[in-house]
Amino acid sequence: MLSVAITTANQWLWSFVISRVTPYMITSLGYGVYMLFASLMVGMSLWAWWFVPETKGRSLEEMEEVFGVAKRRGEEEGRAVGEERDIGVNEKDGSGKPTSGHVEDSSTSKESI
C-alpha cells in the first residue's frame, strides 16, 4: 500500500508542476510547448514499443518468466506456496476435510436447512 501512496503522490506532484509551469511556457515559447509535449509523447511511445514486453495471451507463469520473477520455495513441487503456513485453513482431520471452513459452516450447515 505504501508504493501505491508514493506513486499517487508523485503523479499529483507532477500534475501540479505541469499545471503551474505550462502557462509561463506558452507565453514564452508559443506553439513550441505543443512540440515539446508531442516529442515527449512520441519518445515515450517508442520507449514502450521497444522496452515493455508484450503480455497478450500469456499465462501468469509465462509472465513470471518474462519479468524475471524468481521461483518461490514450493512451486517446483507443484503445490501452493505457503500451504503449510496457513494456520487452521489447511489443517485436516482424520477424514481429509479441512478443520475450519466458512463462518456459515460453523453455526448451520446446508444439510440441516
From TrEMBL:
Record field: compositional bias (Basic and acidic residues): 72-95, 102-113
Domain of life the protein comes from: Eukaryota
GO-annotated molecular function: carbohydrate:proton symporter activity
Segments of this protein annotated with the region Disordered: 72-113
Stored SUPFAM superfamilies: MFS general substrate transporter
Its membrane topology: Multi-pass membrane protein
Family matches, as Pfam families: Sugar_tr
Transmembrane helix in keyword set: yes
Alphabetical list of InterPro entries matching this protein: MFS_sugar_transport-like, MFS_Sugar_Transporters, MFS_trans_sf
Primary site of residence: membrane
Keywords of this entry: Membrane, Transmembrane, Transmembrane helix
Subcellular location: Membrane
GO cellular component: membrane
Transmembrane segments annotated in the record for this chain: 31-52
Protein name, UniProt field: Major facilitator superfamily (MFS) profile domain-containing protein
Protein's organism: Arthrobotrys musiformis
